[in-house]
């Protein structure tokens, strides 16, 4: 069980073999008994942790000198330095080297010293000069608790302090042998992950378990596209561990031809190993300096995945795909032009943006720099982020003479996901570009409205806002946000088919979200939701064409490349466009933001019913758990909320309408029901007696 042989054989070409028993006996002679017993109990308590420690972690300087096997008559290399860095020397010189360059700069923790190590455990990323890759080994420390390798001493001290703050003080010794990578299973797919896989700054192969929902949504979108036409060529431009492309190939089989790309050599190695772990054949195509290298089976079958090592922009410029997914670390705006350059007609581009700091208005100057968009923090900031990304996608597609239709837009805590269908042609590009507008946002009441189309300058832009905050309050009360996407964020037919795919493949985490998205797209409540579409909706209208579903006849299926049939279906779609559900309202209101002080607002589901009874379209939204998407103006929204709120001192009484002055003007508020009018007619005296209470609600009076 050689501790140093495997590593040292590569670095110093010296055949040094130190048995594990020698290390243990050396430690027993110098360690204190109580500490040794506690350490052995820690190691015996968990058999998952390796028993050997790295040779750079020692208790005493004598132990480190014993590893070097100091002899005066022979030259010996340093056990912690490669031969090209420190040549073999005699014992007295090697002793000074170990003491001054390794032991004095060590980090102490519970009696152990973590000495600085120069072995090739942590290679620095190579610098490419011409056709040569110059790589150097970086000095680093090995953590005694976890498997991290830290470059700087100050960072190592901070790293250990974080372990102590978390209560992680048990020593888990790390072996010199290459550690076995952890295997993570997700959706019947096994992948190996590197240490620190959840920290992008510390690993080359990033894997985030919290993005499982994101991967499931993308899989459902790809499965819907694979049902329309097969086989399709799909690209995971930033593979990392390759888990997303492996899930595509493993479940969709012959319907897809998967290409996993990554520009990092370690990630490509991990992707190949994960392909073999899932019993997939690898077709490796690496282009470096104009040289093509193909490794593996060249046969195209259901169990073959193509792995490429290129820059994402390069591979998207060179090849055409039907489905492209972009998931860089941060913003994806640098890859949009390449993505839309060669994507096929009626193909799909999905992108995940994790730069939530700028998109969620925490770093507004970064949003202006990356997206060319002016934003402020609002109650609907997540939907604002989705519309910012779609506007950037629309501009990139228009530069390639392509238009888009948004199929799905999701903004959650960690990411913003946008899925669009690509439509070729300058006319569709112009139509999509016209949907990019500025937004007028009132900073007092948070009312908002998209600026009217046209290039003419208005004398008073405040007149476009439904509120009267500018008239009642001096100064500038509104800001101009954008430019933003002003069109729809969802396609109901596509979402319904995504839900069917999620049920078919048992994607439990995606199903509740997809149901919420379908209700949000139709602007209906969950009670009115049905998984099965009515008979007249078997032909889902998307992008002006009919898409075949399970109950659709073959006549309604669009064959790619058949322009005449496509034009005929476009004409039929225009005639029946009015029969389909109208576009959902833009943005939403948060009930907590607009609740009245001193009043207990009704339950959210009951409040949705009250708005629906008042004649407005209403639904919940995935952007905000307490958000309400409705076409009611903010003044009417507050009116209904106030009407069905109860005073704080009357918590025990049943929820019911609060009669306010102006209820007899319900005809002006909305197409209200007859019951509301009868209640208003029955209580005219109460309305007069409570005239003073109306003065405390200027928004209510202004609305009336």
UniProtKB/TrEMBL annotation:
Which keywords does the record carry? Isopeptide bond, Metal-binding, Methyltransferase, Nucleus, Phosphoprotein, RNA-binding, S-adenosyl-L-methionine, Transferase, tRNA processing, tRNA-binding, Ubl conjugation, Zinc, Zinc-finger
Which reactions fall under this protein's catalytic activity?
A: guanosine(27) in tRNA(Tyr) + 2 S-adenosyl-L-methionine = N(2)-dimethylguanosine(27) in tRNA(Tyr) + 2 S-adenosyl-L-homocysteine + 2 H(+)
* GO molecular function per UniProt: tRNA (guanine) methyltransferase activity; tRNA binding; zinc ion binding
Which InterPro entries has this protein been placed in?
SAM-dependent_MTases_sf, Trm1, tRNA_met_Trm1_C, Znf_C2H2_type
Q: Where are the transmembrane segments?
A: none
- GO process annotations (BP): tRNA N2-guanine methylation
Annotated protein name in UniProt: tRNA (guanine(27)-N(2))-dimethyltransferase
């Amino acid at each position: 069980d050689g501790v140093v042989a495997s590593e040292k054989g590569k670095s110093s070409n010296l055949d040094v073999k130190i048995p594990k028993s020698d290390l243990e006996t050396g430690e027993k002679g110098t360690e204190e008994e109580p500490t040794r017993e506690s350490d052995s109990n820690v190691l015996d308590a968990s058999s998952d942790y390796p028993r050997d420690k790295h040779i750079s972690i020692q208790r005493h300087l004598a132990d480190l000198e014993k590893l070097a096997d100091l002899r005066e008559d022979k030259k010996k290399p340093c056990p912690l330095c490669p031969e090209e860095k420190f040549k073999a020397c005699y014992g007295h010189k090697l002793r000074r080297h170990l003491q001054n360059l390794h032991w004095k700069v060590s980090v102490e923790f519970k009696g152990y010293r973590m000495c600085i190590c120069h072995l090739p455990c942590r290679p620095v990323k190579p610098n490419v000069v011409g056709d040569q890759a110059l790589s150097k080994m970086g000095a680093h420390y090995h953590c005694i608790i976890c498997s991290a390798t830290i470059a700087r001493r100050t960072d190592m001290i901070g790293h250990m302090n974080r372990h102590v703050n978390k209560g992680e003080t048990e020593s888990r010794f790390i072996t010199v042998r290459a550690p076995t990578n952890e295997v993570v299973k997700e959706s019947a797919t096994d992948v190996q992950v590197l240490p620190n896989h959840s920290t992008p700054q510390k690993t080359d192969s990033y894997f985030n378990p919290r993005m499982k929902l994101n991967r499931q949504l993308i899989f459902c979108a790809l499965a819907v596209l694979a049902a329309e036409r097969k086989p399709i060529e799909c690209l995971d431009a930033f593979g990392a561990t390759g888990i997303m492309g492996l899930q595509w190939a493993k479940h969709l089989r012959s319907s897809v031809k998967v290409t996993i790309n990554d520009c990092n050599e370690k990630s490509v190695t991990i992707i190949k190993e994960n392909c073999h772990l899932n019993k997939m054949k690898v077709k490796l195509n690496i282009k470096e300096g104009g040289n093509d290298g193909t490794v593996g089976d060249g046969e195209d079958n259901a169990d073959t995945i193509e792995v490429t090592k290129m820059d994402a922009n390069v591979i998207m410029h060179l090849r055409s795909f039907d489905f492209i997914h972009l998931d860089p670390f941060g913003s994806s705006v640098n890859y949009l032009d390449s993505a839309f350059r060669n994507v096929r007609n009626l193909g799909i581009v999905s992108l995940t943006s994790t730069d939530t700091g700028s998109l969620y208005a925490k770093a507004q100057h970064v949003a202006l720099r990356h997206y060319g968009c002016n934003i402020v923090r609002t109650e609907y900031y997540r939907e604002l982020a989705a519309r910012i990304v779609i506007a950037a996608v629309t501009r990139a597609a228009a530069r390639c003479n392509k238009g888009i239709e948004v199929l799905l837009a999701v903004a959650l805590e960690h990411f913003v996901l946008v899925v669009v269908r690509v439509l070729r042609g300058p006319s569709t590009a112009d139509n999509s570009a016209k949907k990019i507008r500025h937004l007028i946002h009132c900073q007092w009441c948070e009312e908002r409205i998209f600026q009217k189309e046209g290039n003419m300058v208005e004398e008073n832009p405040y007149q476009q806002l439904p509120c009267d905050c500018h008239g009642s309050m001096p100064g500038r009360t509104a800001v101009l946000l954008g430019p933003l996407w002003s069109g729809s964020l969802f396609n109901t037919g596509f979402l319904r088919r995504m839900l069917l795919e999620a049920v078919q493949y048992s994607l439990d985490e995606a199903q509740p979200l997809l149901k919420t998205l379908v209700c949000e797209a139709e602007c209906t409540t969950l009670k009115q939701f049905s998984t099965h579409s009515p008979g007249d909706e078997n032909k889902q209208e998307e992008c002006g064409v009919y898409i075949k579903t399970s109950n659709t006849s073959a006549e309604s299926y669009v064959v790619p490349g058949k322009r005449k049939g496509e034009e005929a279906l476009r004409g039929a779609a225009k005639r029946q466009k009015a029969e389909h559900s109208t576009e959902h309202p833009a943005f939403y209101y948060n009930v907590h933001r607009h609740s009245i002080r001193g009043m207990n607002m009704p339950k959210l589901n009951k409040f949705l019913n009250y708005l629906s009874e008042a004649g407005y379209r209403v639904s919940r939204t995935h952007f905000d758990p307490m958000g309400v998407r409705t076409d009611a103006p903010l003044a009417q929204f507050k009116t209904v909320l106030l009407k069905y709120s109860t005073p704080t001192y009357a918590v025990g009484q049943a929820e019911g309408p609060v009669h306010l002055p102006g209820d007899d003007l319900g005809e002006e508020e909305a197409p209200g029901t007859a019951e509301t009018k009868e209640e208003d007619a029955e209580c005219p005296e109460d309305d007069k007696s409570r005239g003073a209470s109306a003065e405390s609600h200027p928004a209510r009076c202004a609305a009336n």
